[in-house]
Amino acid sequence: MKLRLQFKPAEGPPSRQVVVAEDTASLADLRQLAATTFDLAGSVFTLKEGFPPKLLEGSLDQSLSSLGIRSGTSLLIDLIKSDKPETQAFASKSIKKPQNDDDAPEVAVPGRGSLVLRVQPDDNSCLFRALGYLCMRSIDAMEEMRAIIAQTIQDDPDTYSDAVLGMSRNAYCAKMNRADTWGGEIEIQILSQYFGVQVANIDCKTGKVYRYGEDFEQLIFIVYSGIHYDALALSPFANAPPDMDQTQFSKAEQPVIEKAAQSLVDELRRRHYFTDTADFALRCNQCSKALKGEKEAQAHAKQTGHTQFGEYN
């Protein structure tokens, strides 16, 4: 049975659109229809219905009829705006990246040693390696980290609903358990809570600090280049082995360490240690399709399921 539905944006000029969908169509189909109608590929949004508007919740594979959607239903499209950096599984070919710790800059912290960049491998697990190093003193705890994330999501369906994840929780967890899937904001939030540390994620391009778990007493620092995560640590003297690093800091130490972190990131920016994900040229490593920027890559990933992209000149 065909349903006549009305989409309208929550903000901006009135722009109502009438669409037709089958009552057997799924919530995922409805979201795709909304994204196509308003050119929202790569954007994060929710659907709301009724008055006052309430979030349309359910599994992405549920039919519209089972969700109570009837012909004439008006649906509000609420675009979620976030200034926090998003991540996608990109492999950079042109970024001027330190190849190892010896190539990376460091900043002196008087009386303490030097703040150093601990470079992580480019293997789609750089976030998990960086956080594993800072929280567990191991860069090889990726599988454990992924398992923690999947279990947390399964145990807390209210916080990590299908709507928040953009797919079913089972699908998200299965994807996160794959070695070729990158972590991002959701994973940082979960691991911050799990380890009881504040995570300061510094965007290399802008120098802005994104904080997770601000109520925790201990603090760790990671650096995000646009496509890659590395860890920051305090080394007691030049060329000291990593096992002598201090990786967590108290709130009392925060002003001094964060100042050094910003200086280090300034030097990374001077070396162009970042990638502008809005405009860089990409190619899908799985089908060779040429793409421009993160939004096109995200849209391509949603349409095809492909997750591996490479930057090219």
What does this structure look like?
With 313 residues, the protein is an alpha+beta fold. Helix content is 28%, strand content 23%. It contains 8 helices and 15 strands. Helix 3 (142-155) packs antiparallel against helix 5 and helix 3 (142-155) packs across helix 6. The N and C termini lie far apart (49 Å).
CATH architecture of the largest domain: Alpha-Beta Complex
Q: Whole-number radius of gyration? A: 22 Å
Order of helices and strands: EEHEEEEEEHHHHHEEEEHEEHE
Q: What's the shape?
A: elongated
Q: Residue ranges: pLDDT <50 for 5 or more in a row?
A: 82-96
Strand content: 15-25%
- The span between the termini is 49 Å
How many beta-strand elements?
Answer: 15
Strand order of the largest sheet: 7-8-12-11-9-10
Helical segment tally? 8
Tell me roughly what share of residues is in helical segments. Answer: 25-40%
GO molecular function, one term: cysteine-type deubiquitinase activity
Keywords: Cytoplasm, Hydrolase, Metal-binding, Protease, Thiol protease, Ubl conjugation pathway, Zinc, Zinc-finger
Subcellular location: Cytoplasm
InterPro entries: OTU_dom, Papain-like_cys_pep_sf, Znf-C2H2_OTU1-like_C, Znf_C2H2_type
